[in-house]
């Protein structure tokens, strides 16, 4: 890894058309918007981007379009959400010739949980065969990795450079920060970004960042400067937004929030439902509280 990506790294939504196909020309506007908000990087093909629905060709082309749009202005992380070591390696090889900073890889997420040695071997084979830096995306409930296991993987596989720690347990996050201080530990605890940053998180990769990048970047900055009064204020407003978007159709709610702030309207892939009228009203109200609608298409008209 030539650089250690840190800071606010939003996971992009994938711009699907209503027929479920990707509208690749809409990748660049989102990249430009995120960079314009001050984001320090972006991730493509993750769970917010419904990466589990992408076939190999779509995945390759989406990451390529993201890298091309970024034009070296910010690092791009490529998400991989698949059910086998074989498929994870194949996807990694598809993007290793691109200017990708790292792969963000979930543990396998099928019904049966691999044991600890199988999990270590999964990431070791990925590293050996792709030669790319890897960030563990610790999100799969039935394959959730303990801080001790993640630390073991990072110690035994040097190309595993960090962890994106999800779920709401800050104790596990704090343990991981203490056990792996030299690795990159990103917060995906969307509801608790403020305390994650105060615990020393090296950055964040989480849907809330994509739904409200301007406020998310400001939160990161004010924690760094020690302005905790403003940080607490932003935390409360971002938590209100998170409570409005967290649901089984989180990607759809995130893209709706983006559309209110000026990005073109896009859709989720079936069978994921779009944001309901109640969700839309709550999201709009939360964004109004953040002052995020000033840059919306409605305001610009």
Explain this structure to me?
This protein has an eight-stranded parallel β-sheet. With 301 residues, the chain is an alpha/beta fold. It is built from 13 helices and eight strands. The chain has helices spanning 27-36, 56-70, 85-95, 116-130, 147-156, 170-179, 193-198, 207-211, 213-225, 228-245, 250-260, 277-290, 297-300; strands at residues 7-8, 42-44, 76-80, 102-105, 134-138, 160-165, 184-187, 203-204. The protein has a single domain, classed as Alpha-Beta Barrel (TIM Barrel), CATH 3.20.20. The N and C termini lie far apart (43 Å). Mean pLDDT is 95; it is low at 296-301. Strand 4 (102-105), helix 4 and strand 5 (134-138) form a beta-alpha-beta unit.
Keywords:
301 residues, TIM Barrel, eight-stranded parallel beta sheet, 8 strands, DapA-like, Aldolase_TIM
Briefly summarize what is shown:
The active site is at residues 137, 164. The protein is an alpha/beta fold and 301 residues long. It has helices at residues 27-36, 56-70, 85-95, 116-130, 147-156, 170-179, 193-198, 207-211, 213-225, 228-245, 250-260, 277-290, 297-300; strands at 7-8, 42-44, 76-80, 102-105, 134-138, 160-165, 184-187, 203-204.
């Amino acid at each position: 890894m030539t650089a250690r990506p840190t800071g606010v790294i939003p996971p992009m939504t994938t711009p699907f058309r209503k027929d479920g196909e990707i509208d690749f020309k809409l990748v660049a506007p989102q990249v430009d918007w995120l960079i314009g908000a001050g984001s320090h990087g972006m991730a493509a093909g993750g769970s917010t981007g419904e990466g589990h629905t992408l076939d190999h060709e779509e995945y390759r082309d989406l990451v390529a379009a993201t890298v091309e749009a970024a034009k070296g202005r910010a690092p791009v992380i490529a998400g991989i959400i698949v059910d086998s070591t074989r498929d994870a390696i194949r996807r990694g090889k598809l993007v290793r010739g691109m200017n990708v900073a790292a792969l963000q890889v979930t543990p396998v997420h099928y019904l049966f949980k691999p044991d600890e040695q199988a999990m270590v071997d999964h990431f070791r084979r990925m590293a050996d065969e792709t030669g790319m830096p890897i960030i563990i995306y610790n999100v799969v409930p039935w394959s959730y990795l303990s801080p001790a296991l993640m630390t073991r993987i990072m110690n035994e596989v040097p190309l595993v450079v960090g962890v994106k720690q999800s779920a709401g347990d800050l104790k596990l996050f704090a343990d991981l920060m203490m056990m792996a201080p030299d690795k990159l530990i990103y917060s995906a605890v969307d509801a608790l970004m403020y305390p994650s940053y105060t615990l020393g998180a090296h950055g964040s990769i989480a849907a809330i960042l994509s739904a409200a990048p301007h406020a998310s970047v400001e939160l990161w900055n004010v924690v760094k400067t020690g302005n905790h009064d403003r940080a607490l204020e932003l935390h409360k407003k971002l938590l209100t937004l998170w409570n409005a978007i967290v649901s089984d159709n989180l990607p759809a709610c995130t893209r709706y929030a983006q559309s209110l702030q000026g990005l073109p309207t896009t859709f989720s892939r079936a069978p994921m439902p779009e944001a309901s009228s109640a969700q839309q009203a709550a999201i709009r109200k939360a964004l109004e509280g953040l002052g995020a609608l000033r840059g919306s298409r409605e305001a610009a008209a």
